[in-house]
Prior knowledge:
The protein is built from two helices and 61 strands. The strands form 24 sheets. The chain has a nine-stranded antiparallel β-sheet, with no helix packed on it. Strands 54, 55, 56, 58, 59 and 61 form a six-stranded antiparallel β-sheet that branches.
Amino acid sequence: MQTEHPDGVVDCVxxxxxxxxxxxxxxxxxxxxxxxxxxxxxxVCSGPSSEECDTCKYQHEGSCVEGCIPGQRxxxxxxxxxxxxxxxxxxxxxxxxxxxxxxxxxYKDNRPVYKHEARDxxxxxxxxxxxxxxxxxxxxxxxxxxxxxxxxxxxDITGTWKVWQDKEKRWVEDRNITLQPAxxxxxxxxxxxxGHECKLGDEREDICxxxxxxxxxxxxxxxxxxxxxxxxxxxxxxxxxxxGKYSTGGGSTxxxxxxxGKYSxxxxxxxxxxxxxGKYSSxxxxxxxxxCPAGRYNNKSEANGCNLxxxGKYSKEVGSTxxxxxxxxxxxxxxxxxxxTAxxxGEYxxxxxxxSCRAxxxGKFxxxxxxxxxxxxxxxxxxxxxxxxxxTAxxxGKYxxxxxxxxxxxxxxxxxxGTAGSxxxxxxxxGKYSSRKGSTxxxxxxxGKYSxxxxxxxxxxxxxxxxxxxxxxxxxxxxxMGATTDANGGFACQGPQRTSLACEGQTMTLDxxxxxxxxVQYALYGRKDHGICIRGIHLxxxxxxxxxxxNVRSSCQGHRTCSVQASNDVFxxxxxxxxxxxxVKFTCIGRWAA
Length: 594
């Protein structure tokens, strides 16, 4: 045979206990309307009805009283308190069941209240004690009788009553006092209390345990459905699990917190939802997911937190499932960035996702923030250090002719640059020169010198027969030794005077440079000086031919070169018996180049 348990488990037994009866090999409990005679070794009942009781607890007009329908509780309409006359027990007598305005039994601490039929004495229970009391006030623990017993029905009390003795000011036990249903009184059927079950319609009214609640008819306690719970005994209904919690099975006494990474946003949930990518719940019991804040992300569901965007990336929106790479020209150096910073002037980033910017190399620059590349310094400019926001103009006296330079070169000799930012140097103009590198200006050739071409490193000296009296001359134009007229009547400058000497019998040769001609200024054939041409006889030192000048000019004037013989045949005999000589003074004249 089997015996049932509330949780559905069954035990197999050979015989049902004396307090149960056998129904199709299933042991069921006898009605409470049956008197418990099991201590006498007798079976209490043979079936569910009161007529099948071994001894009826209630009789009316000689017959066993029938029970109430399931969902109702049976109460004895009256209790009879009996006792000895040893003590002042004026509260002994008949007590009637009290009802409220709805004609339902009046309860005190989940126990029925009875009132004496003639006096304001009550039978009531106070849970704080816990005791049954017989006294004048159902709200206070005082009275003439009390017993330490917690039975739901007072007629089931098994403890010994105690009587208060005013003279002795103490409680005294009285084993003669009894409390039992009044004989030959009908029972009263009342709706089972909320949160209780009355299965058989007898006197039993069992409180619903945690995890259950009474059904509408109160015939049984029903396990709470999934998503619901009851945490205290006697629940009238199951509560829905609040948002953030859930229960998966029936009969729950409480709800479980949704774990981190999950949530429930409605009451009565039987399970939790997963936080989607871009959102998270960091604590158990969440009723919703939080979006990842800006600067963070998660790319998986069921996350209990968000990841920081790594350096070089960012997220500016909440709820991001991924981070964006910083575009070229920008960077982020720390994790968790909500935006990127533009590279400062002088720096750049050429790739996306940069964690820092690179300094422009020497010879290049970036003048504005957010540069993706650096620009080469223009010709005439340079940058000698890294990280330049601008290029520097080559100073005067220097230049650079190519782009991207890290420095400038000195202008070479014969050239100059007079302003900053030169990409090339300028040749010194004719009449000027520069003899050193790095000149910012050229110097005028001094008087007496000239330069007749550009780019001169130094000035030239004027030829001997020419000169210039002003600085910065491009040529020498003034005749140093005076001007004259050439053989054709043109302008010419005289050169330095020369002297040529030939002794009698010798041939004198005169010559000038190419482009010049001879101009004879003096000629003497004879003797005027005892020390010249000393060979031979010297009778006189004062004789000369009157044709000396004309004859020499005839042979040489206007020619570049000429020859004249010193002889009497050319000049005649000016003085007999004396050796003679030819002395000529002349100059080369012409347009001297300078």
